[in-house]
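Suppose a colleague, Dr. K., hands you the sequence of a protein chain of 97 amino acids and asks what its three-dimensional shape might be. Before reaching for any lab equipment, you can write down a predicted structure in token form. Begin with the sequence itself:
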Amino acid sequence: MASNASTEWLYNQLTNKGYNVGKDQAEFDSLMLNNADSRQWAYNTAKGLGLNVGENLDEFTSLVAPSQAATGSGWWQGVNDVVANVGNMAAAAASGQ
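The predicted structure, expressed as tokens, is then:
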């Protein structure tokens, strides 16, 4: 996944303030895209530092993880992920893998 301008900016802001936000930009990008708890932490931390990271968590998510904002996030996305995993496991079992 390629980072976007928002995640690059936020990664630099947080690392420059001494926060451990992943081993590198790519890991931070992955956390923002795939982990709702990490997005919540980053949003709360950045807001606490006075950074302009959006009006609310939904706007923040649309900036740092646009695909999550478009497809859903939080517990509903978790349900979708579980359903997709079960479907993949069933397909693998049916094909003998």
